[in-house]
Design goal:
β4, α4 and β5 form a beta-alpha-beta unit. Helices cover 50% and strands 13% of the residues. The chain has a 5-stranded parallel β-sheet, with helices on both faces. The termini are far apart. It is globular. It is α/β, with parallel strands linked by helices and 220 residues long. The protein contains 11 helices and 5 strands, in the order βαβαβαβαβααααααα.
Length: 220
């Protein structure tokens, strides 16, 4: 059973998501919150697998709530998916760096919402190729300073190759095809790179790949 926490200041959004999620046999909404502070407290109480958190809320916004969840070892099993009204909210990049596993637009179709919750529960990032292209554009127009260059020296050549491919939006299966290895080996390379770079999840790994210079818009 996938346990979900809903955090949004709009009751209609919460009730709509809850009605949809509770129809599924493998998903259960365990709690709802109207702001980030309440959401953080409920995350500590219920330890959900997935927390769907609105970016913009009163009292404590979603980014700060996500940052605190990501910093708490007791909440390491909570995968945060940010909710936004727009496909490219100005805070999306900050949210990813704060520890979000990805983000969803609130007018998402039901099938995609259910798929996203299951993907996040597995620990995978919600970074579609279209979102990755926008990440690339972000780094073309406003590159961030390198912060993990030294840590890259700890990666093996194959790990660096796998990370670079992940940063292009490829799945483990696609990485395996490109590198001519098994999907399990591809997943191992990604997991080891995440450990070495102290990335909470695949989404942060992609951000770090760009911030560190391992991937640039020219080679992605």
């Amino acid at each position: 059973m996938i346990r979900v926490l809903l955090v949004d200041d709009q009751p209609l959004i919460r009730s709509g998501f809850r009605a949809l999620l509770d129809l599924e046999d493998d998903i259960q909404v365990v709690a709802e919150a109207a702001d980030g502070r309440e959401g953080l407290a409920l995350a500590e109480e219920h330890l959900p697998d997935v927390a769907l958190i609105d970016i913009r809320m009163p009292v404590m916004d979603g980014i700060e709530a996500t940052r605190r969840i990501a910093a708490d070892p007791a909440l390491s099993g909570v995968h945060v998916v940010m909710l936004t009204n727009y496909g490219m909210d100005e805070y999306v990049f900050e949210a990813l760096r704060a520890g979000a596993a990805g983000f969803l637009v609130k007018d998402i179709v039901p099938e995609d919402l259910l798929h996203a919750v299951r993907v996040a529960a597995r620990g995978d990032a919600l970074l579609a190729p279209s979102i990755t292209r926008k990440l690339i554009h972000r780094y073309v127009t406003a590159p961030l300073p390198a912060t993990t260059g030294a840590a890259l020296t700890e990666l093996t050549g194959r790990e660096r190759e796998a990370v670079a491919l992940a940063a292009q939006g490829l799945s483990n299966d696609q990485i395996a095809d490109r590198m001519v290895i098994s999907p399990m080996t591809a997943k191992t390379h990604i997991n080891r790179a995440m450990t070495k770079l102290h990335a909470r999840d695949r989404a942060q790994l992609v951000v770090l790949a760009y911030e560190s210079g391992l991937v640039t818009p020219r080679n992605s």
